[in-house]
Amino acid sequence: MNRPDDESDRFPRGDDERRDEPLAVYEIVESTAPAKHWELSLFADRLELESPAGKVHHVLWADRHERVLTLDRALLGRMLGVTLDQKKVIFRLEPDAFAAVRAWLGPPTPEDLKIALKRQFAWALPLGVVFVLSALPLAELPFEPVTFGLGLALILTSTLSRVWPHRVFFALESLWFCSLAANSIWRLAEGGGWLQAGFLALQMLLAWRAIREYHRFAPSAIAAAEGDGMAAD
Question: Splitting the chain (233 residues) into consecutive groups of 10 residues, what average pLDDT does each group show?
């Protein structure tokens, strides 16, 4: 989708009616209790969110990386996060609205990859430290080399993903969760209870989510996004 930087190239001069006509309008629900119904309007160069009180918020297409986030999670459903007035507001979207927002955002870019990696590995560094510390032979506890290796791998992956953003780190994250899942399967075979089965389900879900991110940032998708940006220039 080509996105001209100059608004005069996007709309004919003086055509105010066409300029203010949205591409699509949806009613979406804020994830609060009780639920609040907002109106989402998608324009070529921006999106607008109208609150139940009638206040309209604008997000420019150029600011989408910093202010707009879409999530498609098996347990949470299709979610839209938008930063409004320094606050992240989360909405639940129907499939058609979610697909429209994804199309409006366009294919993933290298900047999206950096943001996704930062968000995906925000938990990794502290958890890796916990794994390493718990594996050390402290207070007469034996050294746990497997736990130590998992923690060290998590620390290195989290650190390198910030220095060298690449989609391969999503695959490594998926492999890390698969390693935990293998351990959970072994514990279940040894007679683990329903809690261990719950851990296994969560680990497999997180591994699947990571591999989906790996495929989402395929070189062909990012090349398409860069091609759109060059065309817009």
Answer: 38 48 93 88 95 93 89 78 91 93 89 87 90 88 90 93 93 94 89 86 90 88 56 44
pTM: 0.70
Q: Any idea which fold 7-105 has?
A: PH-domain like (2.30.29)
CA 95 to CA 15: how far, in whole Å? 32
**Domains of the chain: which residue ranges?**
7-105, 116-216
The amino acid at residue 114 is K
Question: What are the tokens at 19?
Answer: 């300029």
| The amino acid at 105 | L
Q: What is the DSSP letter of 53?
A: T
194 exposure class (CB count in 10 Å sphere: 0-12, 13-18, 19+): exposed
d(CA 175, CA 180): 9
Spatial neighbors of 131 by CB under 8 A, at least 6 apart, are 147, 148, 150, 151, 152, 154
Distance CA 166, CA 114 (A): 8
Question: How far apart (Å, rounded) are the C-alpha atoms in residues 192 and 126?
Answer: 27
Cβ neighbours of residue 67 closer than 8 Å, sequence gap 6 or more: 59, 82, 83
Q: Which residue is associated with the tokens 């969560």?
A: 202
Give CA 9 to chain center in angstroms: 32
Here the tokens at position 78 are 């299709």
HSE-up (13 A, CA, CB side) for residue 112: 22
